[in-house]
Design a protein that fits this description.
Length: 307
C-alpha cells in the first residue's frame, strides 16, 4: 500500500505479474529468435481486460484510472519480453486512445470492441521516412473524392505494422503545417495497401516494426476521427499518455535491473564472501536503491495521472 496504489491496484499488479511470468517469460527467448510473438497474445490480454483498462464499459472496457496502465507497463517490462509489451500497449494506449477520446459514437462502436477484445490488431501510423518527430510535416495525403478519402504515401517504424488489421493513420487533408493534418481509421485490407518491409532491430525483436505503403487507397470519409484538420492536436494530446507508458516501462526495467544486481551480488563471491556483503558494494547498491526510490516518488508524486 502506498499513497499512489490502492489494494485494488496491488491485486491487479499481482494478477499481471502472474500472467506475465506464466504466459510471456517462458517464451521470451523463442519469440525473440523468431522476431515475432503470437497474435493470440492480444486475445489473452483482452480476456484479462488489459486492452480496455481505461475505456468505457459500453465498448467492452473496464473504465479504470491511469495507474492501472502504469502497473501493466511496469510488470510487463520485468519478464524479458519487452517487444510483446510494446505491441500490447500500442494496441491499448497509442493506437486506440484517439478513437476513444475524439471519435464519433458510431466509430467507437464499430472499432473499439474488437480492439479491446484483442480480436483485431491496431497500429499507429504517424512516422514517415522523411518526418519522424516532426509530426506537423507529414506528407501522406488523403484527398476527398465523393464520400471517400483517397490516400497516398508511406509510413515507417510502425509497431504492429506487419499484421495490423487497422491503422490509426495521420494524413494530410489540408494545407501545410499542423492545421492540415487529420486522423483516420485505416483498414489494412484496403486495395492499394502493402507492408513494404519488416524492419530489423537491435532489441525488442519479438515486437514487429514495419514500413507501410499507400497507393490510391480508398476509405469512407466516415472513418475520420473527430474533426478534419484537428489531427495534430489529437496526436499531441495522446502523446502524453504514450510518454507515461514509456516512462513506466523504464521504471519497470529499472526495478528488474536492481533485482538482477542483487541476485548476482549475492551469488558472486570474492575472497570467499558474496560481492554484496562487501562494504563498498553494499553501499553502492544502497545508493542505487535510494536513487530509485526518490526517482519513482518524484515521477509518481509530482502529479497523479488523470483517469
Amino acid at each position: 500500500m502506498t499513497a499512489y496504489f490502492t489494494e485494488e491496484h496491488n491485486m491487479f499488479r499481482k494478477s499481471i505479474r502472474n500472467f506475465a511470468e506464466s504466459e510471456l517469460k517462458p517464451h521470451a527467448d523463442e519469440w525473440e529468435a523468431a522476431e515475432i510473438f503470437p497474435k493470440e497474445i492480444f486475445a489473452k490480454f483482452g480476456k484479462l481486460g488489459c486492452l480496455g483498462i481505461r475505456f468505457p464499459e459500453d465498448y467492452g472496457g473496464v473504465g479504470q484510472d491511469y495507474w492501472y496502465t502504469v502497473i501493466l507497463c511496469e510488470e510487463l517490462a520485468k519478464v524479458h519480453c519487452l517487444g510483446a509489451a510494446i505491441g500490447v500497449l500500442v494496441q491499448t494506449e497509442m493506437a486506440t486512445s484517439s478513437i476513444n477520446e475524439f471519435g464519433a459514437e458510431e466509430l467507437k462502436k464499430e472499432f473499439l470492441p474488437s480492439a479491446i477484445s484483442g480480436e483485431k490488431i491496431f497500429a499507429l501510423g504517424i512516422t514517415e521516412p522523411g518526418f519522424g518527430s516532426n509530426a506537423a510535416g507529414i506528407q501522406t495525403a488523403a484527398k476527398k473524392d465523393g464520400g471517400d478519402y483517397v490516400i497516398n504515401g508511406a509510413k515507417t517504424f510502425i509497431s504492429n505494422g506487419t499484421r495490423a488489421d487497422f491503422v490509426t493513420l495521420a494524413v494530410r487533408t489540408g494545407g501545410p503545417g499542423s492545421h492540415g493534418i487529420s486522423l483516420v481509421v485505416f483498414p489494412t485490407d484496403t486495395k492499394g495497401f502493402t507492408v513494404s518491409r519488416k524492419l530489423k532491430k537491435m532489441g525488442t525483436k519479438c515486437g514487429d516494426l514495419a514500413e507501410l505503403s499507400f497507393e490510391d487507397c480508398r476509405i469512407p470519409q466516415r472513418y475520420l476521427i473527430g474533426e478534419d484538420g484537428k489531427g495534430f492536436y489529437y496526436i499531441m494530446k495522446c502523446f502524453q499518455g504514450e510518454r507515461i507508458v514509456l516512462a513506466s516501462f523504464a521504471n519497470g526495467l529499472m526495478e528488474l535491473l536492481l533485482e538482477e544486481a542483487k541476485r548476482y551480488g549475492l551469488q558472486r563471491e570474492v575472497f570467499g564472501t558474496p560481492v554484496l556483503k562487501h562494504g563498498y558494494w553494499k553501499q553502492k547498491y544502497a545508493d542505487m536503491r535510494t536513487t530509485e526510490g526518490l526517482t519513482l516518488d518524484a515521477k509518481r508524486g509530482s502529479k497523479t495521472p488523470a483517469a
